[in-house]
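Trying the structure run again after the queue cleared.
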Amino acid sequence: MYFSSKIPLLLDGATGTNLLAAGMPHGVCVEQWICENPEPLQTLQKRYKAAGSSIISAPTFGANRMKLEDYGLGEKTAELNRRLVEITREAVGAEVLVAGDVSPTGRFIEPFGDTTFDELYECYKEQIHAQREAGADLIFCETMLSLAEARAAVIAANEEDIPVFVSFTVDEHGRTLTGAQLLPCLITLQAMGAAAVGLNCSGGPEEIAEFIEEAKPYADIPLIAKPNAGKPLNEAGTEYELSAERFAPYLYPLLKAGARYIGGCCGTTPVHIKLL
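Done. Tokens:
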């Protein structure tokens, strides 16, 4: 499913690094902090909209039950997801699409861990159902580390009848933490009905372009490229090596590599998106 006649489709940029720069404390539950302090997030999202983003993600990255349990907030999973989607819609209106953001659970599936595939599915089902109820237009599973988790999330999204994007994070060799590579993940997930597949984070735009190009001949759906602004320059993770002026020209090699849905990850700002 394509979401716009405009190709390439412009996504948004980073959320977490911008909120840290705006004063969000380290170590807090980001989702709860945003619900209590929505103004910095909504200001950022309005700037992404003004910069030209066609899809803006709700800040629900860590809002699955397994992650929220680390803060004693597991029982508030549905409530937090609904509220964060609502906060985002209030900020951006109906002119852009709102994505419910989904992330890895931090658990490993059997036999490498003690979590079952069914437990992953139920975790994502709860989160995605709440996001859809609150009016999310699509689901964006990002920074995924395993094909198993991605499959569980795609099944849950399919059952909720909502389009789903999936992007993985890989190292310099093109592998996720669990050894997955983009090409087999693409082949599997597009067969399962994913609307777009690609990479986010994963270093800078040069690294992402290389792996996107390898997958391009096999893609029947749009490929996603959402790279970092290079490497972080400080321990706080609030400054990155590629300014907007240095980042934006990478649009051309990303397009040549085959990416069609393009945005930014860690270290990118509304200015990066505007110049893209």
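DSSP finds twelve helices and eight strands in the chain. Worth checking whether this holds up in the mutant runs.
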